[in-house]
């Protein structure tokens, strides 16, 4: 069982893994005090796994592009969808079907495309044998549709989620947020891309259509027989997936592409590079940046997103460009296979960020562990384990606040921070300017013990209760989450 020494050792894990070993392993007889009635998801082994795990041969399978979900009904004001939540299987390792969970029966859920100003109504049907729910990560939505940890879809029940899509175009994603089971559910496959398209971007002439591709990155661990290992040291999740496949290739034309990169790993940080090339970063969690930025390396902690443009027109047919990670190695290979007409461009100026209003409230948010003899630690925020019946911050609707995010854990222990309902702006990191990855509108940021990050948010929109938490899901699962209430 994890003890204080184990957490201190976590700072020495391979770079790129923000986590603590075995936080998911429950103590014998120990019930989750934050959500006792719901146990972590069970895992059913497949009888098809009887021999050694098959070898992954790089670049032998294409990277799939998740299909776009088709609406049941489309009206001038909204689209209506239906989507199941179910146990299923997926061929992650070649030739083997792994038991997983999936939206729409897929390990990577279908992409949902919305438009700014048009509502999305989704009927989620839970066909599993345990409760689940859905959170639109980065969405500006009413509290009853946010996927609050207490708002569950029980087995064989349906729940309606209404997404107003009043925000600007952005790359979001949807995933399970059922407290006590969110870490296992997301790890087993309950996640998908949600793209809000904004007509105001048309004048920028960025790559669109078949040249606008979501790529969901994550890690995973299998045992010797090929079964998915759910509860173990996150450092052992050494296989990296791009849209659900390890080391796939993706055929591209010699032209510009927009890639919407989403880190859907439970608690991993990717440090991404392109062999012999650079990224042109155009978007962050909340949408377009003010200006496009050239980057040799792109860092994404769990749940962060980045929209980038890669121009393959400089390469001759037959070229191969590889996306790599500092820890995970080669992730994805782009194969230039044809020429194509390209009228798109990447302007230097994209979308001005809104002016920062005057902040009237200052708060501190401290993420750390509390250790207990012979038991797993508690994850806490400001010294308290998550309690659904407790409101930690009361905020006036429309107020602008400055939050100082920090961690009192020993140096080297890492977390990240996610705020529901609204995006924020990073003002400072460690008393100095923000890092390049902090640019734009953010809803998720990494925070290492010893760091301080000052952010500013304006709580417009709705009244009601929302959560903020560490988005290393094994950390929020043990209580590193708190609740705010927005009042009139």
TrEMBL record:
The keyword Protein biosynthesis does not apply. The keyword Metal-binding applies. Belongs to the multicopper oxidase family. This is Multicopper oxidase domain-containing protein. Keywords: Metal-binding, Oxidoreductase. CDD domains: CuRO_3_CueO_FtsP. Residues 28-40 have a biased composition (Basic and acidic residues).
